[in-house]
Amino acid sequence: EKVALEKKVSDMEDELKSLPPLARIQALRRGNARLLVENKAMLRTLAQLSPKATLPESEDL
């Protein structure tokens, strides 16, 4: 699983390098938004699995 994730990251980095600056920024923003959604979903899942766990304060970026 780790190797697959590393390959995916490497492929994404190569794809970003080939984009013009504006498209690169837009792609990074989309990726960032997707990761924020995934992180929130994981935190909700962890909170359900561990009732004693508390969710961290959200930070606006």
UniProtKB/TrEMBL annotation:
InterPro entries: PRKG1_interact. It holds the Pfam family PRKG1_interact. One of its GO terms (molecular function) is protein kinase binding. Residues 1-50 form the cGMP-dependent protein kinase interacting domain. This is cGMP-dependent protein kinase interacting domain-containing protein. The lineage of its organism: Eukaryota, Metazoa, Chordata, Craniata, Vertebrata.
